[in-house]
Structures are given as structure tokens and as C-alpha cells.
Write a structure and sequence with these properties.
mainly beta; four-stranded antiparallel β-sheet; 14 strands; 6% helix
Length: 208
């Protein structure tokens, strides 16, 4: 899935102020892809950079979306037919407002979602953060259990194009670039953590 604002499908394309979300499918492991299909288009909010999550029962997909105009919070859309149709975008709570949401399911059934914080009123705005909560929180518009700053970004914005993986032993590995030292060039950083460690730091009991 990806987005376009008018600049990238033609050689002389220009920013139109309209953001369009596209999806494309592969049936051969990524060797070839279908023609892009439009799933949403609009100008009142600029939805882009979709990050996909599958529900615990495997029946529903959700995409968490950056709101690039910074007029509203991030948004979410749902599909119950493997992407054939999608619900209308719906605004998410402030705790999930950010850019480039990348998620993994934790061993206890929760979600760990890494992104750059763009909440309008936040002590960690512009930093690399992670949200911990449940699928139900996303469906019901809940704030989740807690949020954690993974690293203080010394630049106002430039950070957090994260890769996130869950290892066999339950360790979460998250990797991204950022400006981690004042006056230094940005560099790539990896963090290794477990849900038990995060729950303990958050002063909460382990588990959903």
C-alpha cells in the first residue's frame, strides 16, 4: 500500500493537494504486482504511509495512517474481505497519532506499535515512540495501555522510519535512523526490549 499526491504517476506530475491511497497485490511472493487500485482519495485530510495490522482472529485488516496536513490525528481504516473493500477513514486518539506506524503482535496478544510522535500536545513530539495496547483499543478508539519514548530525537522531526521484528524468544527489535546526539549527524539505532521490561518500567502488571 502507498499514497500519491499527484507528483509521482506522471513525469510532469505536480502536487494537487489531494492525497490518494493505493493498494497493489502480488501472488508470486513479490516478483510481480497488480496495477494499483485506489481505496481512498481526499483533500480535507492528507492520509498517507499506511501501516497494516491483522486482527488476532485473522479476519480483519487495519491500516493506521499518517495525517500529513497536521489538521487532525492519525486515522484508521478496516477491511473484512482481505482488502477488496475498506471502511471510511476514522480519526484515532492522540496516543496513536504519528507517522509510519509499524506493528508486531506480542506473545501475550497485545500490540507493540512503533512510530514518530506527531501528537499536537505531547512531551515526546518528534521523538521515536512506541504504543502498547490491544486490537480492541484500535477498534473502539481507546488510548491503549501506555506509550514509551524509545529515543529522544534532537531534530524537530527527522526520525522513525522503523523496522520492527519479534524474535522467537519474545524480544522485540526495533531499528531506525534519527538525530540522537546534539550537533551530530543522524545515525541508525537498534533497541532490544521485552514486554516484561516495558510493563515494569510503566509500573504495570505484565499481560493484557
Amino acid at each position: 500500500m502507498f499514497h500519491d499526491d499527484g507528483r509521482f504517476f506522471t513525469e510532469d506530475g505536480k502536487n494537487t493537494g489531494v492525497f490518494t491511497l493505493y493498494q497493489t497485490f502480488s501472488g508470486d511472493g513479490g516478483l510481480s504486482w497488480s496495477a494499483p487500485e485506489v481505496i481512498w482519495s481526499g483533500s480535507d485530510v492528507h492520509l498517507c504511509e499506511p501501516g497494516m495490522i491483522r486482527s488476532p482472529d485473522g479476519k480483519t485488516l487495519a491500516i493506521l495512517l499518517r495525517e500529513n496536513a497536521r489538521r487532525k490525528n492519525s486515522h484508521v481504516m478496516f477491511s473484512e474481505d482481505e482488502g477488496k473493500t475498506w471502511s471510511e477513514p476514522r480519526e484515532l486518539p492522540g496516543a496513536l497519532t504519528g507517522d509510519r506506524h509499524t506493528a508486531v503482535s506480542t506473545p501475550d496478544g497485545r500490540l507493540f506499535i512503533s512510530f514518530r510522535d506527531t501528537t499536537r500536545k505531547s512531551e515526546t513530539q518528534g521523538d521515536w515512540v512506541a504504543w502498547v495496547g490491544t486490537w480492541e483499543d484500535i477498534v473502539e478508539g481507546g488510548e491503549g495501555r501506555y506509550r514509551v519514548r524509545l529515543k529522544d530525537n534532537k531534530h524537530r522531526w527527522d526520525c522513525a522510519y522503523p523496522g520492527v521484528e519479534m524474535l522467537a524468544d519474545g524480544t522485540i527489535v526495533a531499528v531506525t535512523h534519527g538525530h540522537w546526539e546534539e550537533g551530530a549527524e543522524p545515525y541508525i539505532l537498534a533497541v532490544h526490549l521485552t514486554m516484561e521490561e516495558l510493563d515494569r518500567l510503566a509500573g504495570m502488571s505484565t499481560g493484557p
